[in-house]
Each structure stands twice: as C-alpha cells, then as structure tokens.
Write a structure and sequence with these properties.
The chain has about 210 residues and is mainly α. It has a domain of about 120 residues. Helices cover about 45% and strands about 5% of the residues. It has a two-stranded antiparallel sheet with strand order 1-2. The longest helix has about 50 residues. About 15% of the residues are buried.
Length: about 210
C-alpha cells in the first residue's frame, strides 16, 4: 500500500534556483604565479632568484631573458684584501673565462652557465653551488679554483655550457625553420599561381 501524498515531496532539482558558479581561486592564484615579470631579471648575480625557484612553465622564459642580458661583468676598481699581498677579483678573468660574473654587492664571483643550466644536486667545493648560490671569493686560490670549476669534458660546468648552446641553437633552429617554411610557401604560391594562369589562358583559347 503506497504512502499518500509522497509525490509532493519529490522536487525537480532543475526547478530550484541555482547559485552562480564560484570562481576557482586556486586556479587564478596558480595562473598569477605562472606570469613572468621581466623586472625580476637582476644583474647582480648574488641577488638573483635561482632558476629552480621559478615555476617550471616559466623557467625557459627566464633563461632566455638572462641570455639576452648576458653575464654581468662590471669594469671597476675591485676591492682588495688587507695584508702584505692584497688580493681581489681580476678583470683579466673576463677575457680568460667568458662565463665568469662579478657581484658588486657581495664582492664574489659566479658562473653564468651554471646559474642557468646547473644540474640539480651538484654541490662541492669550487663547484656549482659555490659559483651559483654561495659565491666564490677565495682570490688567493683563484688560479686553481677557476680551472677546477671548469673541470673535464663531462664536468657539470661543461654540461651546463652544452645545454646553454643547445638552448640557443634551438631558438635559432625555430627561427630558421620558420623562415624556410615561409620561403617554401612563397615558392608554392608562385607555382600555383602560374599553373592557374596557364589553365585560364588555355580555357580562354578554347
């Protein structure tokens, strides 16, 4: 035996007033974080935000911006240490090591290639952590530390440099391919246009 009046309790949900959709605050915040601000590019290597601290979707944009800027190599009177043989950063290192950067604020040296493309987890004396985050200032042993940082063929520094070259060539290849595709499109257009004109002349002649 059915329950009388039960139909009065069954309400079509479509007839109920629907609340407006709420904005996805989490997604909006995520999108804001992924917006790259060129003002974040800092010349002084000691004051920079590390590449890994940027959102993964932004890291290539940051690298391109720094590559356009190039390494920071100010010409100035570099501070000297006190003592019988004062030592300091040498301007001649700019010519010998194209990757070297100098921080005026911290009086330390850094590596431009390793800053951009250093492998994660590399940290050893005179290594990537020193030349990207900590900064090198042992001027007395610079003659030995700088070549040690470069290392052998498969060193972290040389791998970072190769990654840098590949990154640059990738951009150049894209530009070259676009230019080549544009030229090919123009040639195809000329061929199609010429063929169409020949066909039109033939039809007119008939």
């Amino acid at each position: 035996m059915g329950i009388p009046g039960i139909g009065s309790f069954l309400v079509d949900r479509r007839s109920l007033p629907q609340s407006p959709p709420q904005p996805n605050v989490a997604n909006e915040e995520h999108e804001v974080e992924e917006v790259f601000n060129p003002d974040e590019i800092v010349c002084d290597p000691a004051l920079r935000k590390q590449i890994k601290e940027y959102h993964p979707d932004l890291q290539d944009q940051v690298k391109r911006a720094y590559l356009l800027k190039g390494p920071t190599q100010p010409i100035m009177n570099f501070p000297k240490t006190m003592g019988s043989r004062p030592r300091g950063f040498s301007k001649a290192w700019y010519d010998k090591y194209d990757w070297i950067e100098y921080s005026e604020s911290h009086d330390k040296a850094y590596c431009f290639y390793c800053f951009l493309f250093k492998p994660l987890g590399s940290a050893h004396r005179f290594g990537n952590e020193v030349f990207t985050k900590t900064g090198f200032s042992d001027w007395k042993h610079g003659y030995k530390a700088l070549p040690e940082h470069i290392g052998g063929v498969n060193s972290d520094h040389n791998n970072a440099r190769l990654h840098c070259d590949d990154f640059r060539n990738q951009r150049q290849s894209v530009s070259s391919n676009l230019a080549r595709a544009t030229k090919e499109s123009e040639e195809l257009y000329k061929i199609h246009l010429t063929s169409s004109l020949h066909c039109a002349r033939f039809l007119i002649g008939q």
